[in-house]
Amino acid sequence: MSASFSQWLEGARPHTWANAFAPVIAGTAAAVMDGQGSAIRAILAAAVALAMIVGVNYANDYSDGIRGTDDDRSGPLRLTGSGLVPPALVKRAAFISFGVGAVCGVILSVMSAWWLILVGAACIAAAWFYTGGKNPYGYRGLGEVSVFIFFGLVAVLGTEFTQAGTISWRGVLLAVAIGSLSASVNLVNNLRDIPTDATTGKITLAVRLGDHRTRILWQALVGSAVVITLLLSIGNVAALLGLAALPLWLVAAQPVRSGAEGKKLIPVLGLVGRGMLLWSITQLIAAFF
Q1: Where is the secretion signal located (predicted)?
Q2: 220-259: per-residue pLDDT in tens?
Q3: Mean of pLDDT values over 169-178
Q4: Does residue 156 contact residue 219 with C-beta atoms inside 8 Å?
């Protein structure tokens, strides 16, 4: 049995790619507001982010698969857990993706600041040890914290710094918003998997909090992006364009608020991701006003 290209693509989980592009767009918006901005550096940052998220998705597929965590799940196809692809090939795909990200990251670091290579190394280590290694931190309820830090603070502020050479208060607000939204995507994914994760020993934050409190936290994370939009508008009223993403988030909130479970929660991931991408684009547009 072998996987087709479409199945490999599904294993890379395209619905999560907004978590890669949105931080780069938001960081570029911050750089433009700083009076800077570089298309070439933004493209390199996007390449790093995309390679990293594909790598972490394949790494999670591999690590969860060999542990048996994916033997009974309601989410999208997993290559290792389904038996479609030998674990070693999925692991290789993960490290090829990390390698692509590392090369692009080194080029970007040479163009801006050499010490960013160390930040990139930390990102790769965090991506692998999320579910990899003997004591993965994703199994200890720290997944959302890591996503907030690396796909929020590091990705947004790193993008801003590579283009503007500085970090601004606007950049910090943008980073917190993107980090919160990215963490909410991870959280609802784990909310969906509470029953199976609890029985396989994968103690995610959702398992620790329980169903009800996880749903409350999810709403707080998404709601924080709305609050930050209002704060950004104090310095630039055009930032209110970000409220265009609100309808998507309200639709995403319906199954979370109504107590939906299993596959009924899957659309929430895409809705939040598309809303996050739209929000970051509106902030880039607002940066030119």
Answers
A1: none
A2: 999 999 999 999 999 899 999 999 999 999 999 999 999 9
A3: 98
A4: no
Give the model's pLDDT for residue 74. 57
What whole-number distance in Å separates Cα of residue 44 and Cα of residue 50?
A: 10
How close are the terminal C-alpha atoms of the chain, in Å?
55
Sequence spans of domains, the chain: 5-287
Exposed/middle/buried for residue 107 (C-beta within 10 Å: 0-12, 13-18, 19+): middle
Q: Which amino acid is at 262?
A: G
Per-residue buried b or exposed e for 117-150, using 16+ beta carbons within 10 Å of the residue's own CB? eeebeebbebbbbbbbeeebbbbebbbbebbbbb
Cβ–Cβ < 8 Å for 18, 60: no
Token couple for 244: 């265009």
Polymer length of the chain: 289
